Amino acid sequence: MIFPPSGFEVPSRLFLLLLIPVIVAAYVVLSRMKNRRGMRYTNTSMLESVIGRQSQWRRHLAVALSLLSLVTLTLAFARPVAQADEPLPRSTIVVVIDVSLSMEATDIEPSRLEAAKVAAREFIETLPPEYNVSVVSLSGAPAIVIPPTTDHAAAGRAVLTLQPQESTAIGEALITALRALQQAPQDPDDPDGIAPGAIVMLSDGENTAGRAPMQAVSDVVEAEIRTFTIAYGTENGYVDLDGVREPVPPDPAMMRQIAEATDGAFYEAESADDLREVYADVAVESGTRKVDQQVTSQYAGFGLVFAALAALGAISLGVRWP
């Protein structure tokens, strides 16, 4: 499989591809000239008995394979790179859980918050033991419930202590998550940098307090921290506040925007089972980072295969295989 390149280390070499249409044009012109010369002979059956009849499709196929070889080898010459996921040797995962009053909705049994706490605890338990885990509560006043720690059991217990609070400050929660990352053990080679890691944010509603989410996202992008967002709940969710039924649908548009801006991933979960599946995917994705990987050898390999097939086609024409 040839991976589509995301760029080239020496893009100037791609100008060699301009030779391909020149070669195609020359092939078409020479083929027409040959056909015109062939029309001078009226007794073509006698010619065929002397020199044999060449297979047109085989000749065209050999030329096409040669051109494919030139294209792939030229791409290889330009040293293509493709994005790949590279495992992080050490990582900090900040689990942000919405605890606003809307999380008391029972469209997900026994309630959104209780189901989310169970799923988050299971997610933390699946992370590699060397990963640091931090838990941040998302409300009108986001807080670091537990700073980064490799004691995943303690982090899981911290999740279970979460209680409903008023308002939803998504932007402030992102900044709080960044603060949590800054508390992780630093890399000795880069003591001033933020530890590699990711933010995993679950929210069931729209921003109602604090700074605008996208304003906080700019800080997350600057820190190069991927954010995985989960729009949680159903359109039919509601809570009773002072005897008034209030609908509390999730806000997938905002969650998607945050994930895309930070090169993360966006998910939707409308049930406890959905949420477990989402966390299983996030457990794999959050421990990696996107890197440019050179794929020159792959393109060179396919170029050599095309060249070998073209050579076989030329040989078959030369020895007049049936």
Task: Describe the protein.
With 322 residues, the chain is an alpha/beta fold. The protein contains ten helices and eleven strands. Strands 5-4-3-6-7-10 form a six-stranded mixed β-sheet, sandwiched between helices. Strands 1-2-11 form a three-stranded antiparallel β-sheet. Strands 8-9 form a two-stranded antiparallel sheet. α7 links the parallel β6 and β7.
List the helices and strands and how they pair.
Layout: E1 7-8, H1 19-38, H2 44-51, H3 56-77, E2 80-87, E3 92-98, H4 112-126, E4 132-138, E5 143-149, H5 152-160, H6 170-182, E6 197-203, H7 213-222, E7 226-232, E8 238-241, E9 244-247, H8 252-261, E10 265-269, H9 272-285, E11 288-294, H10 296-318
Parallel strand pairs: 3-4, 3-6, 6-7, 7-10
Antiparallel strand pairs: 1-2, 2-11, 4-5, 8-9
Alpha carbon gap, first and last residue: 32 Å
Strand content: 15-25%
Q: Strands of the biggest beta sheet: in what spatial order?
A: 5-4-3-6-7-10
What count of domains describes the coordinates? 2
Main sheet properties: 6 strands, mixed
Q: Rg from C-alpha positions?
A: 30 Å
- Assigned CATH class of the largest domain: Alpha Beta
Shape: elongated
Weakly predicted, low-confidence segments: none
**Quaternary assembly:** single chain
Count of runs of 4 or more consecutive helical residues: 10
**Average pLDDT value?**
83
CATH topology type of the largest domain = Rossmann fold
**What is the CATH architecture term of the largest domain?**
3-Layer(aba) Sandwich
Computed structural class: alpha/beta
The helix/strand order is EHHHEEHEEHHEHEEEHEHEH
Number of strands: 11
The percent of residues in helical segments reads 40-55%
CATH superfamily annotation of the largest domain: von Willebrand factor, type A domain
Protein name: Ca-activated chloride channel family protein
InterPro entries: Aerotolerance_reg_N, UPF0353/GerABKA_families, VWF_A, vWFA_dom_sf
Domain VWFA: 92-282
Transmembrane segments: 12-30, 299-319
